[in-house]
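Troubleshooting log. The previous structure file for this entry was overwritten by mistake, so regenerating from the original sequence record. Sequence copied from the archived sheet and checked twice against the printout by T.R.
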Amino acid sequence: MSNLAHDFNYHEKPYGNIVDFGKETLIFRGLRMGDWLEIKPMHGRKKKIQLKRTKYTFKSGQVYECVIDNHEIILPGIKGSDFSFSLVLSSKGKKDHDDSSRYLLRSNMEAPFGINGMLGFKAFVERGDTIDMGYNRLISSNSHSYDPRGAWNESAELLGQDNLLSSTLSILIEGETGTGKSYLARKIHQKSKRIGNFVHINLSSFSENLIESELFGHVKGAFTGAIGAKKGAFREADWGTLFLDEIDSLPLNIQTKLLLFLDSKEVRPVGGTNSVKANVRLIFASGRSLLKLVENGTMRKDFYFRISSGASVCLESLRVKPQRIEKICEWFMEREDVVISRDLICFYKTLCWPGNIRQLLGYLEKKKIMSKGKKIIFDKSDEEISNFDAVDILANSEDEYITWEELRFRYAHKIFMNLGGNMEKSANILGISKNTLKACFRKRKIMPQ
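Regenerated output below.
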C-alpha cells in the first residue's frame, strides 16, 4: 500500500483543486489553532471540536460512537483494521502559536489516512480538507459559518441575547456605511421568530413628499396621483419587523408623526380619518451621530430620546479594527479559491476603507476578476486606491484626525509597497536606516514576510 501513499512536505500538496503557492498557501489556508473539525463517525452522532491543543491523537476502538477524552479521540473501527494518527501543531517559529504554526497530520502505524481522496502518511491539513480514517470522516474548517458582515463582536453580543430578540423592544444600529447594519437588522428579524414580513425602507431614497405615504400609506384620492389606496410600510410589516435605514435623513414633520406611532402603535394613512393598530418591531439605523443632529436642530430632542430608549449597538469601522481586514481576506480566499499575497494584506490593513466591509469585498472581487491567475498581488489598482488614504478622508472629518505617527507610518508603507517590498530602497528614499523602517513595521505588527 505504500506505493499509493504520498508523503507531503511544506511546499508540496498535489491533491484536490488547491493551487500551490508554497508558504503563503500554508499560512492562509492551513488548519490552525482555534479552527474546527467536524467528525462524522461510521455510526453514532456527528460531533464538532474546536482545536485548542497542540496535539490530538485519533485511534480506532471497539466503540459505538465517537469518544472524545481531552486530547485523545477514539473512533469506531473494524477488527483487524486498526489505525492511530496524530494531529500536531507544527511551528516554524519560536512560539507554538505564531503565524507559521499549522497542524500536521501523520500516521503512527503502517496504515495511511485518506485526504481529499488520496492516501498519505503525513500532510499539512488545510481548511476545507476531507480526511478519512477508516470508515470515519473528518472535515476541517476555520469556523462554524463565518460571514464577514456578521462577524463583528458587537453584533455577536446582541444576537446572543434571546430575551431581547424575542421582545418588541426597538433597536438602534449606528455605524458607517458598509459596516453591516442592514445585514444585522435582517438577522435580528430572523432570530426574533416574528411571523410577519421584514420590510426595509431606506429613508434617504425618497423625497420629503413621498416619505409619509411610503411609511403610513394613503387612501385613494388623498393627493394628485393617488389613483389607488396604499397600505404603507407599517401595515406591510404588521407582526413583523420594519427596518428604517438612514433615520438621520427623516424630515422634522415626519419625526413628529413617527413619534405618535411609537406612543400609540396606531397608523393613520395620508388622507384617512381612521387609525389602525400595527404590531411592528422597529429597527433604526444611522450612519451619522444622532446627538449631533439634535445639537444642530435637524432632529427633535424628544424623537431622539424615544428611538434611543431601546437597545442600541454601534458597529465599528475597519480602520478602528484593522485586524478584521485579514480575517475578511482569509474568508474571501477560502470562498473564492484564491491566494492573496501576505504583503498585500499587510498593505490593506494600512488603508482606512471608508466603505468598510462592502468596499473591501467589492474591491477583492474586482482584483480576483482582473488577476491573470489565482494569486492576487500588488498592482497599479492598489496604488490608485492608496491615493484615497485616511490622510485625505480623516482630515476632512469633524470627528476624527490622523496622528503624526500614523501619517509617517502610512507614507512609509505606501512607498514600501510601490517599490515591490524592497526594504533597502524604501529606507533610502525615506532617508532613514533599514532597521528603523523594520522597527516601524514591527511596531504595527504587520511586518511583511
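The chain has a mean pLDDT of 81. Archived copy saved in two places this time.
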